[in-house]
Automatic annotation (TrEMBL):
Pathway(s) of this molecule: Pyrimidine metabolism; UMP biosynthesis via de novo pathway; UMP from orotate: step 2/2
Record-linked Pfam families: OMPdecase
Catalytic-site annotation from UniProt: K102
Protein name: Orotidine 5'-phosphate decarboxylase
Enzyme class of the recorded protein, top EC level: lyase
Assigned protein family: Belongs to the OMP decarboxylase family. Type 2 subfamily.
Domain Orotidine 5'-phosphate decarboxylase: 23-270
GO terms assigned for molecular function: orotidine-5'-phosphate decarboxylase activity
Keyword terms of this UniProt record: Decarboxylase, Lyase, Pyrimidine biosynthesis
InterPro entries: Aldolase_TIM, OMPdecase_AS, OMPdecase_type-2, OMPdeCOase_dom, RibuloseP-bd_barrel
Catalysed reactions, as listed in the record: orotidine 5'-phosphate + H(+) = UMP + CO2
Domain of life: Bacteria
EC number: 4.1.1.23
Length: 284
């Protein structure tokens, strides 16, 4: 248990959730195109119907749900209120919630972001968040420290699948030739050292990036692997990216599941098929 909260650390909770429900994270991304495909208006009302339908379909079945904060924020205070409901109702149904915010800043601003998403008192507090470390890994310390105190997790961007990513992430440091991405992996490893069964500082590594040359052997934390399905990656691609770290990989998809809406049963069935497909593809 985490001191002072009675909460099992996120890494251990993730291991249990994956063992029970399978290795899959489904993004709740209320993109205007998806709302329109579901026959919903692109407004706060359509957002609410879309997001809560996704929660009804998935929260009792999938290990991790990943709401993308930006799509909720785009609708102002009403959208943020919907996001609060998504977080609360998903957790009540048994899913872990990874809030995709990709925040990264310095000093008191980073502390404020940390309190918004990781403090027990916040209505936006999730089980874990995504963070951007490109102001320096050390700039994330307020979030890292608060997550540790509250038993929550973080996923730090390391080697992302967007075409602009390599400009920064594959650049080499002056400390002996490590890439920026490798430095992020090494920093995560240091934070996770000694954690059992798994540390709570994860990395975001795209499922579509191919062979990276990165050494993940000491990370001892989870890997969020976006890109399964609509972005073109298959479960087999995970072997290429992660090698012998597959047991710690959490594949992520969004559109490949949500496009089957607006029916609850159809969305849930698509998620279950994805879980089965990934398990079959990764079976030894």
């Amino acid at each position: 248990m985490t001191a002072g909260t009675g909460r099992v650390p996120f890494g251990a909770r993730l291991v249990s959730a994956v063992a029970e429900r399978g290795a899959l994270c489904v993004g709740i991304d209320p993109h205007p195109g998806l709302l329109e495909a579901w026959g919903l208006p692109v407004d706060a009302g359509g957002l609410e119907r879309f997001a809560l339908t996704a929660v009804e379909a998935l929260a009792g079945t999938v290990a991790v749900l990943k709401p993308q904060s930006a799509f909720f924020e785009a609708h102002g205070s009403r959208g943020v209120a919907v996001l609060e409901r998504v977080i609360a109702e998903s957790r009540q149904a048994g899913a872990l919630v990874l809030l995709d915010v990709k925040r990264g800043d310095i000093g008191s601003t980073m502390s404020a972001y940390a309190n918004a998403y990781l403090a027990d008192s916040s209505p936006l507090a999730a089980d874990a968040v995504t963070l951007s470390p490109f102001l320096g890994f050390g700039s994330l310390e307020p979030a890292l420290a608060l997550a540790e105190r509250t038993g929550r997790g973080v996923f730090v961007l390391a080697r992302t699948s967007n075409p602009e990513g390599p400009q920064v992430q594959t650049a080499t440091l002056a400390d002996g030739g490590r890439s920026v991405a490798q430095a992020m992996a090494d920093e995560a490893a240091a934070r996770n050292a000694g954690a059992d069964p798994l540390g709570s500082v994860g990395l975001v590594v795209g499922a579509t990036v191919g062979r990276t040359g990165l050494d993940f052997s000491q990370v001892n934390g989870p890997f969020l692997a976006p890109g399964i399905g609509a972005q073109g990656a298959t479960a087999q691609d995970l072997r290429t990216v992660f090698g012998d770290r597959l047991a710690h990989v959490l594949p992520a998809t969004s559109r490949d599941v949500l496009r089957h809406g607006p029916g609850v049963a159809e969305v849930r069935s698509a998620a279950l098929r994805a879980v089965e497909s990934i398990a079959a593809s990764l079976a030894v």
